[in-house]
Amino acid sequence: MKPAHQLSPPQDNQLRIVLVEPLIPPNTGNVARTCAATDTALHLVGPLGFEISDRHLKRAGLDYWPYVKLHVHENIDEFYTFQQARGGRLIGFSTTGASNYAQFQFQTDDWLLFGSETRGLSSEILRACQATVYIPMSQKNVRSLNLSVSAALGLFEARRQLNHFSSIHPNF
Q1: Alpha-carbon distance 91 to 114, whole Å?
Q2: If pLDDT is split at 50, 70 and 90, which confidence band does 169 have?
Q3: Among 93, 102, 104, which residue's Cα sits nearest to residue 148?
Q4: Mean pLDDT, residues 86-98 taken together
Q5: Distance between CA 125 and CA 11 in Å, rounded?
Q6: Which residues in the chain belong to E strands, given as ranges?
Q7: Do residues 145 and 153 touch, judged by C-beta distance below 8 A?
Q8: Interaxial angle between packed helices 147-161 and 25-38, expressed in degrees from 0 to 180 and rounded to the nearest 10
Q9: What is the 3-state secondary structure (H, E, C) of 82-104?
Q10: How far apart are the first and last CA of the chain?
Q11: Would you give the DSSP letter of residue 116?
């Protein structure tokens, strides 16, 4: 895996996953693997809590890194400039989100934002989002789900709504 700021050309009109200041390499590696499997661009917004070459990051992503459309942004302002040039809504996932993610209507060019494992998205970033959503949980004493689980749930719900599974066949 080569560290680079942009490993693939911009992908307009497609769902994207954005991890803002992720801290734990295996979580990011797992999200990268999900993005590779779904042909979804992954945007990492710094500062990151690890080096892109971290062995735990590589291990969690297995040998799928060549299939990840990876974009690395040094900070949130750099990401906003990139995103604004391409359009699409910013959808912030947060325990304080306004809408249940399963009832929210996703659009093809949405950017699905997830915050760091310990802090989530800041209030400033949530205010910059066009919408905020939450993933409901039955147990009130559980604050949140794992970052990679949340990203997978959000991405797969958006893909389900947008009928992105209709032409996919298993390779068995």
Answers
A1: 9
A2: low
A3: 93
A4: 97
A5: 22
A6: 16-20, 41-45, 69-73, 90-93, 99-100, 111-114, 131-134
A7: yes
A8: 20
A9: HHHHHCCCEEEECCCCCEECCCC
A10: 27
A11: B
Task: Strands of 115-170 (E only): list them.
Answer: 131-134
**At residue 22, what is the residue type?**
P
The yes/no answer on whether domain 16-161 falls in CATH 2.60.40.420 is: no
Tell me which long-range contacts 159-166 makes (C-beta under 8 A, separation of at least 24). 159/15, 159/38, 161/105, 161/106, 162/15, 162/106, 162/107, 162/108, 164/38
Structural domain spans, the chain: 16-161
> Do 15 and 112 form a contact (C-beta atoms < 8 A)?
yes
Secondary-structure percent of the chain, ordered helix, strand, coil, rounded to 5: 35, 20, 45
Residues 159-166: what's their mean pLDDT?
87
The predicted pLDDT at position 55 comes to 72
DSSP character for 120? B
Predicted confidence at residue 134, as pLDDT, reads: 98
Mean pLDDT of 20-46: 95
Lowest pLDDT segment from 5-9, 81-85, 154-158, 162-166? 5-9
Q: What is the pTM of this model?
A: 0.88
Locate 137 and state its tokens: 């949980």
